[in-house]
Amino acid sequence: MSAANDIRDQTCLSGNAVQKLNFITDSDRYIFRKYYRSGLRSHIFEILTAEDVLKETQGWDMDGIRMFPRARPKKMFRILRNKFKSKEEIFREIKKYHILLKFLGPKFIAESDEFIVDYTGTGTTQIVLCGLQEYIEGEMLDPWRLFGEDYLRDLFKFNMHEDSQIQRLVRKIQKNIAKFVKRTRHMITDTGYIPDLAGVGNLILTPDGSLKLVDINNIVKINFSDTILIDDKGYPSCDVSVEVLSILGRDILHKDICMDDPLYRVFLSPERRIKIKALEKEFYKNL
């Protein structure tokens, strides 16, 4: 089998193809379903029980009514596209996840069991990093579409009927976002890294008012200089992630953004923002 068949290079990978991989134990109990948000760095799949999928597709009777409940993933399965040259490189990658876990804690990230597999799909044995990640249910917090002052309220109003209940939830979300921003700032100060907050869907608001970062495989170096860092895909994720922090503070927590703050003074300067927009435009043009 040629290198052209390397799963890490394939744009799309089906659930059936995953179940045929040499490192997946054949089991009729579980089904791998491609997740709609598979990203640039990973193939992502929902792990579902065959029983739940059967109920979702064929339905089941409940008090004379045919129900079709959506199958809820037991875990999220990730196959990283990175081509690591050694186990040491993989260990450095895993270490980044543990930095996130240390500073943000399980309260603010989707926890994951990271593991190495021997992949033989190209005809030779290669090491591939995978993860079994906690499934987070909730609403996407999209920093680029915060429409109106009642954005948080509007996200949940269709699931709740009492005004007081919605208000309590919004206050809880705001408190958790404030803690998230504070812990992220500590991580920046203590490690020189920032998590990738830029991608749509990277942040999830759960029904109980928690905030979870689900993109746990991309934290980037932060550099307080005129040099604009881009990630391995050519995106200025460091600068854009700092911008997201400012958006959370300004538009969700309704706090003034102090441009004397060293972080914002460097990364949100008008001149730098012009350069960032040009880099983003080039990135999307080359996708």
Number of domains: 2
Q: Summarize the main sheet.
A: 5 strands, antiparallel
β-strand number? 12
Strand order of the largest sheet: 1-2-5-7-6
- Anisotropy-based shape: globular
Radius of gyration over all CA atoms, rounded: 21 Å
Helix content: 25-40%
Query: What is the beta-strand fraction?
Result: 15-25%
Structural class: alpha+beta
Mean pLDDT: 90
Count of alpha and pi helical runs: 8
Low-confidence stretches: none
Short description:
With 287 residues, this protein is of the alpha+beta class.
Which properties best describe this structure?
single chain, 287 residues, alpha+beta, 2 domains, 5-stranded antiparallel beta sheet, 3-stranded antiparallel beta sheet, 37% helix, 19% strand
Question: Overview of this structure, please?
Answer:
By secondary structure, this protein is α+β, with helices and mostly antiparallel strands. It is built from eight helices and twelve strands. It has helices at residues 15-19, 50-58, 87-104, 151-156, 163-191, 237-252, 262-267, 270-285, and strands spanning 30-34, 42-49, 60-62, 65-67, 75-80, 112-119, 126-133, 139-140, 193-195, 203-205, 211-213, 219-221. A hairpin with a 6-residue loop joins β6 and β7 (126-133). α3 (87-104) crosses α5 and α5 (163-191) packs antiparallel against α6. The protein is globular.
Write the layout of secondary structure elements.
Blueprint: H1 15-19, E1 30-34, E2 42-49, H2 50-58, E3 60-62, E4 65-67, E5 75-80, H3 87-104, E6 112-119, E7 126-133, E8 139-140, H4 151-156, H5 163-191, E9 193-195, E10 203-205, E11 211-213, E12 219-221, H6 237-252, H7 262-267, H8 270-285
Antiparallel strand pairs: 1-2, 2-5, 3-4, 5-7, 6-7, 8-10, 9-12, 10-11
